[in-house]
Every structure is written in C-alpha cells, then in structure tokens.
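queue> holo job accepted (pyridoxal-5'-phosphate)
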Amino acid sequence: MTDRKGVSPAQQAAIAQTETWGAHNYLPLPVVIDSGEGAWLTDIDGNRYLDFLSAYSAVNFGHGNPVLTQAAIDQLAKVTITSRAVFSAPYGPFVKALAELCGKDMVLPMNTGVEAVESGIKLARKWGYETKGVEERHANIIVMANNFHGRTTTVISFSNDETARRNFGPFTPGFRTVPYGDVTAIADEIDDNTVAVLVEPIQGEAGVVVPPKSFLPALRELCTERNVLMIADEIQSGLGRTGKTFACEHSGVVPDLYLLGKALGGGILPVSAVVGNRDILGLLHPGQHGSTFGGNPLASAVGLAAVELLKTGELQQRSSELGEHLHKRLRTLIGNGVDAVRGKGLWAGVDIDPYLGTARSICYKLLSRGVIAKDTHEKTIRLAPPLVITEAELDQAIDALVDALAEARAEKG
Ligand SMILES: *Cc1c(COP(=O)(O)O)cnc(C)c1O
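queue> job finished
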C-alpha cells in the first residue's frame, strides 16, 4: 500500500496492519510516526521530519508544547470527564477566556470542528425562527462553492465535492451555494427566509484560497443590512494561523458567530466551540442542544491554556513575520516549477506546475527529504507548519521544496 521506495520493513508492517484493520477513508503518506516535538515528527525508525501539515492546523502550538502538556497533566491528575450534569472548576475560566479572546459574550463548547459547524447551523436557524421571524422550517443558509466544513450528513449536504457526497444522500435541505468571494451573488440569493451566510475567511481545503480584499467587508455590511447572521468558520484559519488571532481581522471584520476547533484543543484533544453574543447563544435552553464530552474538564483546562498562549499575541506575531519570509521565498519559485502561491501568515497553498507531476508526487519527494506536507486536490501543496517553528527550520523545508522541484524537473529531462 505504498508507492514510496525505501520504507523499512517495520514501517511496511505497521502500514499493512493499518490498511488491513482500519477503514480506508484516508490516503496517508507512507510514514509511521512515533513521536513529536515542536515542529518535528520522528518515525518508528528514528527518522526526523519537519511537520508542514500540523494536523491541518490542530498543532499550531507545536507538538508536545510544554505549557499545554503541563495543563493537561495537571488536569489528568484531578478529574477528566464529568459531563455537563454538574459544574466543573476549569469550565468557567475556559469559556470566559475564550469569549474575551473573541470579543463576544458567550461560548458553546463542542468537540470536533464539524460539531461546531452543526451547532452554528442550529443556532442560526433558531435565531431565524425566534428572533428574525422566519416561517418555521423554511430557513435557508447561504454557503460558498468549494467549501469545506466537515463530514457529517448535513454538512456534506452543502459540499460540492462529489467524492465526499456520492452515495451518502438523501441530503439536508436548506442551503444555497454561491461562488466564493462573490458578494453580489450572495445579495441575490438572500430572501426573507435567509438566516445566515456561512463562510471560511480563507478556504483551506480548497487550496488556501484567499478571497478578494473587498469580499469580507462587503459581506459584513450586507449581512448587517439584510439582518442575516455572518458565520465565520475559523476552524482552520483561526487561532494564529494567518498571523492574526482570526483571519477575519485582516479585513477588519467581526462575524456574528465564530466557529473554532482544531488548534483550540492545543494539539492534545478535540475541542471546538461556537462563540457569539447573548442575542444568539442565549437562545439555547436546557435540553435543546448538548454533547456528553463538550466542555469536559480536560478539554476546558487545555483549551484555557491554549487561549492564554494566544492572549499574548506572540504566536500571531511569529506567524505574521515568518509568514512573510515564507511567502517571499515561495514567490521566487513562481515560474520555476510553481504556478501560484496563495495564503497568509504561516499558511500557503502552492500550485505545482502540472508538467513536473502531481502535488502528491512532490509530497513524496518532500517526505524523502524530511518534510511532511500534504497535497489538496491535484496540483496544490498546503504548507502549514506549527507556529513555533524557527526561521532556520522554515528555510530547511523551503530548501527541500526547491530541491524536490529540481529533481522533478531533472526527471523530465
Ligand atoms: C477541519 C475543518 C472542519 C472540520 O473539523 P473536524 O474537527 O475535522 O470535524 C470544519 N471547517 C473547516 C474550515 C476545517 O478546516
């Protein structure tokens, strides 16, 4: 199950076991990881790799971040799961700190990102019926083409990725798709039953697609004017990835609801949340929504520590400065094996010249040079190292990319 030469027998055995007993819903790179520290991962044979995927931005704070690990260990020794049937000591401080980080009133914690999306959809519909006065069961939500919001039945209902949808219907109604970045198309779709516009401020899985500069401010204005909620899915773009706490900040825009996940769990466990003001989150009453694990003491302790790391602004600054360096170097590759570079901060989508091969073929070459990066679609490599990476490590990975492209070119003759 591997197309990379030189995989050791031990790794081959581990891969074979995975492929035999585990469902094949991913196409992993042929490397078996044993441990991680900072921006580095080590495989079971002791080979080291720079992690340029960061588990899709779940590991923004780096592997084994000492502050987050200590917060987890301290909480592990006390109590880990209580359910929300009782109050727990870390829960209050966590929701207060996260609400303050977002400049909002209230937090609804869940576990995975897609649960935050589902919760945001439920809240927007409830707000529509109870506050806006939308006719019951007629609410619609406007979504963007090429979105990625997760994999549940409702969320794939408004995906246009056929691989993610085929043979999983029937789908949930109530969603309308418009081209990403087109505020006129959104304005045309809004009617009296529209409760929300759901948007990624930068589309991650689509290939780190940055919308036109005017898009988010115009969307914010439109949503306010037409009494429609603006929901920003910052699950991948948020928490420092783009050089600010939220990608929306680059446009000076504040959404009505933030959807957060991935890095909120500090790279330790799944923690997600919907964050907004009381006029929306205050509509939830006991029994109307919930999750056994949402906001559990361990998640709250780690989530609080993650928020505290972001409060200083240091990581955002790092991401911004090192991101400029990353993008500057990547731009020099345009025309040299690279067709285009997109992104912000320590987040880049790099389109590989199809003449040199697929993005995946370049990812294999990166792997053999000690860099783990993942393709998205045919021609894009996504680069998203932990924000704790050093400039030297960053340069090492970019050098590996330059070298991988040179090798691909040499193979073409
Ligand atoms: C990853 C992601 C999700 C889904 O998060 P899961 O934790 O995998 O459920 C939703 N939205 C965006 C933008 C994402 O990148």
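queue> Residues 56, 112-114, 117, 148-150, 200, 204, 233, 235-236, 261-262 surround pyridoxal-5'-phosphate (CB under 6 Å).
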